[in-house]
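New to this. Explain the following:
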Amino acid sequence: MDSRPIGVFDSGLGGLTVVRRLLEELPNENIVYFGDTGRVPYGTRSPDTIKRYTAEDCRFLRRHDVKMIIAACGTASSVGAQVLKAQSVPAIGVVDATAKAAALATRSGRIGVIGTAATVQTDAFGIAIRALNPDAQVFSQACPLFVSLVENGWIAEDDEVTIATAKRYLSPLMDAQIDTLIMGCTHFPLLAPILQTILGNAVTLIDSGSAAAGAAKELLASRDMLAERENGSCRFFVSDTPQGFANVAKMFLGREVAADVELIDPALLSE
């Protein structure tokens, strides 16, 4: 048994989809979430900057005596993979767990990946999938506008702008006849109904948040590190504008979080 919290970080809000899945899978666990809202987005940054941000985010979470770290950001998980491996506590990203889920789900071996430009450029999901299934064909598509659409609440199934954008992004993947799609950014599951309608029910959507939560549960159980309390709690930290975070977080988590959100001094991240 280990009662220390699980640390989760993201460049902003999307990582809350991982928190939501953790609350479902591991309701006894305490969670400390850091949303780096002052430096969002990570997906357009240079690799060196992303690695530095990843290291700083991990260091911030370790100050809260976390027992493990989850990089809920697809960009940090792919570009900052070596940084995660170097942590003094178990640290996982969304890439490996999601790739495993996709490799198990595909029937034809034709897998699509949507993510930020930085995530797609690394081909991290493709590398992980091909390590599991060398015959798999992976087709990647950067979808940079999706993050802004989600964070502005344009997620209704009949939203014409979001539907048109999704159709433009998904067209090459449909032409490639994929049967499985990795939503490689934690914002994207909020667009799942729109994506599923466009792609059709024959395409399986893989939620990176669910995959990461499942991997965390498996890791903690294997090391006898699960908490045994009755009900866990969540603390939320941001590097800019707590109120703006709280307003959108309700959309991700399905509950109010305003009282639990704390603003940190961004200078703390580089100390």
In short: The two ends are 32 Å apart (CA to CA). The chain is about 45% helix and 15% strand.
